[in-house]
Amino acid sequence: MGAKIKKGDLVQVITGSKESKGKQGKVLKVFPEENRVLVEGINRVTKHVKAGQTQRGTQTGGIEQVEAPIHVSNVALVDPETKKPTRVGFRLETVEKDGVTKTVRIRYSKATGKDI
Questions:
Q1: Mind listing the UniProt keywords for this protein, alphabetically (predicted)?
Q2: What is the rounded end-to-end Cα distance, in angstroms, of the chain?
Q3: What is the 3-state secondary structure (H, E, C) of 23-92?
Q4: What are phi and psi of 72, to 5 degrees?
């Protein structure tokens, strides 16, 4: 995956169901091992939770709507300037901090060339 999409990024669904396609949402969690991301408000599924009790005695359980992970190839990062999906590139820059030179990878939008 190369960390093109990170937690907190705004992404747009580019393929998938009619309900999800074109929607934008914030990445809640990234699963790099499975190449999947959890996006807020996208790919909502119904989950049946077994009834139980909390320590205060209130009832828990029932039917809940939760987000399910979506494959990373089905989403595109949204450019903060244009608010449209864009491809991500990496650029190496040398930064000097406290007399130490480091090489850092910086993500940039291939459409505008600006840093993300």
A1: Ribonucleoprotein, Ribosomal protein, RNA-binding, rRNA-binding
A2: 17
A3: CEEEEEEEECCCCEEEECCCCEEEEEEEEEECCCCCEEEEEEEEECCEEHHHEEEECCCCCCEECEEEEE
A4: -65, -25
Beta bridge partners of 67: 44
Nearest one of 67, 93, 65 to 11, comparing CA atoms: 67
> Domains, the chain, ranges and CATH?
10-85 (2.30.30.30)
Q: Is the pTM of the predicted complex or chain greater than 0.85?
A: no
Whether residue 103 contacts residue 93, with contact meaning beta carbons closer than 8 Å, is answered with yes
Q: Which residues of the chain have pLDDT under 50?
A: 1
